[in-house]
DNA sequence: CGGTAGGGATAGGGTTCT
DNA sequence: TAGAACCCTATCCCTACC
């Protein structure tokens, strides 16, 4: 028949990653339409992008907390989730996409938003970016990521919550609500 | 992470079907406002109802062909699983609101008074409603739908024809004279 | 603005290929 | 047995049209 399994080239994979960094996850058609990536990805469909991103994410997440999370899931049937937050039912925060180059999280220190970014802020951004949750990450996920990857003071959660509020009110994070769901705002320039 | 995909429960689906039977298709906001369904469907929007109805109709239309296709696909690796009968996945029957009794044409005591709706009548209404043919459905379409989705006795067509006549003379159906087609009467009494 | 219809995109489960 | 690539389709989103 037609195609005996078209393997992804490193160029395609790089284009996909750059596209996600620029437009965010879940914007597969947008990435495909971006002239910056369309040439490299011209033989891929939006669904292909989605599938490949899923594969990348799955393999990338072995190393963080997911292992323990899954193990816990099997051991403990009742997940005791409750909202001790203020009044938000489900808060997700996603990094604002930026148009040019940016944010190499493996060797950072070289970027700054226009607003003040503390070191905790950078950690928060790293958490959200690396978690790669399609619909954004809620506070609990962010907390867990930071607990996994850093030594944290006892009141880390409070600090993080404060910074999240700041970052989403006048920083690079966006918190938007739609049916108890949050998403990026770069689809809405005005 | 508020709701990464709200799957429809059987209760919700039943409420939607009952709502369509009561108010007609395209009356999504009306169905939602009906106190009889609003509790079950409280987490759904009118657009959700519309989308779900479309999906129900599509799967109903392709009814048996799809199953035949899948059967073919799995013909080669025949695993001798023996749970063929308590499988609820197969042919879904309209579960009107909360009738425990389920329409099986094997006992067609379709002798109705002028008001009562028999099981066969309900199946006919389901057929016409799900077929959603803009100009109504003729007998052949209705026959095919029923054959596709139910186990039918040998003289099903006769029974259906009788009920069609009854339903259109003093029931909820409207017979479109021009082409011997039938349509529901639910579309706005005025 | 609120509602509906329809097109189209995405998410997630499943399947096939290697 | 596992992982990558691909398929299926329920759900969700966007836009045009009242």
From TrEMBL, chains A, B:
Residues 1-61 form the HTH myb-type domain. GO terms for molecular function: double-stranded telomeric DNA binding; protein homodimerization activity. It comes from the Eukaryota. One of its GO terms (biological process) is nucleosome assembly. GO terms for cellular component: nucleolus; nucleosome. Keywords: Chromosome, Coiled coil, DNA-binding, Nucleus, Transcription, Transcription regulation. Residues 116-184 form the H15 domain. Residues 5-57 form the Myb-like domain. It is found in: Chromosome; Nucleus, Nucleolus. Binds preferentially double-stranded telomeric repeats. This is MYB transcription factor. The chain holds residues 1 to 190 of 292 of the full protein.
């Amino acid at each position: 028949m037609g195609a005996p399994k078209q393997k992804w080239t490193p160029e395609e994979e790089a284009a996909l990653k750059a596209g996600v960094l620029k437009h965010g996850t879940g914007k597969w058609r947008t990435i495909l339409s971006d002239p910056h990536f369309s040439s490299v990805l011209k033989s891929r469909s939006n669904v292909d992008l989605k599938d490949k991103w899923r594969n990348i994410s799955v393999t990338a997440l072995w190393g963080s907390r997911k292992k323990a999370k899954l193990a816990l899931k099997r051991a403990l049937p009742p997940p005791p989730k409750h909202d001790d937050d203020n009044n938000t039912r489900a808060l997700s925060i996603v990094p604002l996409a930026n148009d040019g180059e940016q944010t190499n999280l493996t060797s950072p220190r070289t970027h700054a938003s226009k607003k003040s970014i503390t070191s905790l802020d950078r950690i928060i951004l790293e958490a959200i970016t690396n978690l790669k949750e399609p619909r954004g990450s809620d506070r609990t996920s962010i907390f867990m990521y930071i607990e996994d990857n850093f030594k944290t003071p006892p009141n880390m959660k409070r600090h993080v919550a404060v910074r999240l509020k700041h970052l989403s009110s006048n920083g690079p994070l966006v918190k938007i609500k739609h049916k108890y769901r949050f998403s990026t705002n770069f689809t809405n320039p005005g």
